[in-house]
């Protein structure tokens, strides 16, 4: 469906990951070996939190309907700023039209949200899900994607107070509505959420066969493994990235996030928790 990455750490030029690394996000937009679609050329989005938070921590957005590999503005922008936390997303549309309002990530106040996957049978569920969104939030939906509806449903159900619980409630509602309409596996995908301080990355699907998700190994550990790797010098000690698929072929540089798992990234490092895992 799509490919995405989320960075957390010392301020970094986003181009280092979106454009310049071995299997960058733009490279994956042209060729995504682990994706359901190998080409993701139906627009892209980039969201970033400011390095200077003296005027608040509301993220900025750049969306385009051009293929990421064709957009010169993306290179100019990502090479000219630095950010301690940013999202990048390349889209393979599966129904909703190619328009800027349908490009991820989506923003509400200081929150960013993006998704790789789909809500199966979304058109059958759309009315029920949309009517469950808080009336004060509903007018803020500008696009036609299942992801944006899922985001505002999760906001309605408490995402800002507890992202894991809020998204879990929203997904359970999607599953209940979908299954009531004969849809066997309503939810599929990986989701990234941030408030500008913490990054939450979810891997979950009703079928328990979710899209791929990985995160990088800590930079000090990588430097021990590869002391001569000059490429690692651009990253600070705290740098971490969560991705749909690895950005490099270096053995041991990325680890897979297990099925039905929430990966949390904050100042204390990585943490994994079960997410909607019946066995847990």
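Sequence proposed for the structure above (280 residues):
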């Amino acid at each position: 469906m799509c490919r995405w990455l989320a960075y957390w750490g010392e301020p970094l030029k986003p181009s280092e990951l979106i454009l310049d690394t071995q299997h960058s996000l733009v490279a994956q937009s042209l060729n995504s070996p682990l994706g359901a679609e190998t080409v993701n050329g139906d627009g892209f989005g980039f969201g970033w939190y400011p390095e200077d938070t003296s005027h608040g921590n509301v993220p900025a957005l750049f969306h385009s309907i051009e293929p990421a590999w064709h957009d010169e503005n993306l290179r100019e922008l990502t090479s000219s700023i630095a950010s301690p936390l940013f999202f990048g997303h390349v889209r393979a549309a599966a129904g909703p039209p190619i328009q800027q309002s349908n490009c991820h990530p989506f923003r509400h106040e200081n929150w960013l949200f993006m998704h790789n996957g789909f809500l199966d049978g979304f058109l059958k569920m759309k009315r029920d899900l949309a009517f469950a969104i808080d009336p004060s939030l509903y007018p803020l939906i500008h696009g036609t994607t299942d992801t944006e509806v899922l985001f505002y449903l999760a906001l309605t159900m408490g995402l800002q107070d507890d992202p894991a619980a809020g998204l879990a409630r929203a997904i359970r509602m999607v599953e209940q509505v979908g299954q009531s309409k004969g849809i066997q596996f309503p939810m599929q995908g990986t989701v990234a959420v941030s408030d500008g301080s913490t990054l939450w990355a979810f891997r979950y699907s009703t079928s328990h066969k979710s899209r791929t998700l990985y995160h990088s190994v800590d930079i000090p550990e990588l430097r021990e493994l590869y002391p001569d790797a000059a490429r690692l010098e651009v990253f600070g000690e705290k740098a971490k990235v969560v991705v749909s698929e690895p950005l490099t072929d270096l053995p041991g540089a990325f680890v897979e996030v297990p099925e039905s798992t929430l990966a949390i990234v904050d100042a204390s490092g990585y943490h994994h928790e079960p997410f909607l895992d019946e066995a847990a």
